[in-house]
């Protein structure tokens, strides 16, 4: 069995690539990215993406809250550009400081487009991709891992759960002929030991998978199953409301 470094692309070392469209999302997922980079011996890369959808939506109905607590509406293109630039600089600075403290090689870039597309565009086979997301409410406890039928939990997911001291919930994307199991209805949060698969739930339809994620409060979701047949990554993250981890080329 090949190790994590051997699964990286031909360009060299494995990379953990953290992408975000705002500073709070990046900050919320940075500890996860650092942990994964340390345990896999990977380089840490940050990507700040100015979302095309937001830029195309116009500015007349935009609304922000300033540091003084005042609300501003009707943002100009220049004001929004400055807000993006400020978030990008804060993300870059925090990434550099944390990576240096952890003795990790790091880099940073900016892009314009769609977050998930940009992450896949800059990744080589084997890289670990993280979409940052700041939850509105504190995460409850588990790490969810999405598997295909018969697929083992990836080693990096097990190690991450042990490091974070969180149990794993395996959501198995299976065919409709599979017997209905815990995936048919929401279940209580598991109380298993950190790093172990505390519970397995069968999800015979994409809608069942999304409902499971909507009723959980995971600290992260790891997509280990092939993306074909799954809901789009952005929809998975929308349901889970937490950082999303993918393996490029998986």
Architecture overview:
The chain has 250 residues and is α/β, with parallel strands linked by helices. It has 2 domains: 5-131, Rossmann fold; 143-247, Rossmann fold, CATH 3.40.50. It has helices at residues 23-40, 52-56, 77-101, 115-121, 155-164, 206-215, 233-240, and strands spanning 15-20, 43-51, 63-65, 71-73, 106-113, 128-131, 143-148, 168-173, 197-203, 220-223, 244-247. Helix 1 (23-40) packs parallel to helix 3 (77-101), helix 1 (23-40) crosses helix 5 (155-164) and helix 6 runs parallel beside helix 7. The two termini are 16 Å apart. Keywords: Plasmid. It comes from Leisingera aquaemixtae. This is Universal stress protein family protein.
Give a concise summary.
Keywords: Plasmid. Helices cover 33% and strands 24% of the residues. By secondary structure, the protein is of the alpha/beta class.
Q: Which percent band covers the strand fraction?
A: 15-25%
Q: Taking Cα atoms only, what radius of gyration do you get, to the nearest Å? A: 19 Å
- Examine the coordinates and then state which fold CATH places here, giving the name of the CATH topology of the largest domain: Rossmann fold
By DSSP, the count of extended strands is 11
Q: Which percent bin holds the helix content?
A: 25-40%
Write out the strand line-up for the largest beta sheet, numbering strands in chain order. 5-2-1-6-11-10-7-8-9
The average pLDDT is: 82
CATH class of the largest domain: Alpha Beta
What is the total domain count? 2
Oligomer: single chain
* Global structural class: alpha/beta
CATH architecture of the largest domain: 3-Layer(aba) Sandwich
Fourth-level CATH superfamily of the largest domain:
HUPs
Characterize the overall form.
globular
Protein name: Universal stress protein family protein
Keywords: Plasmid
Organism: Leisingera aquaemixtae
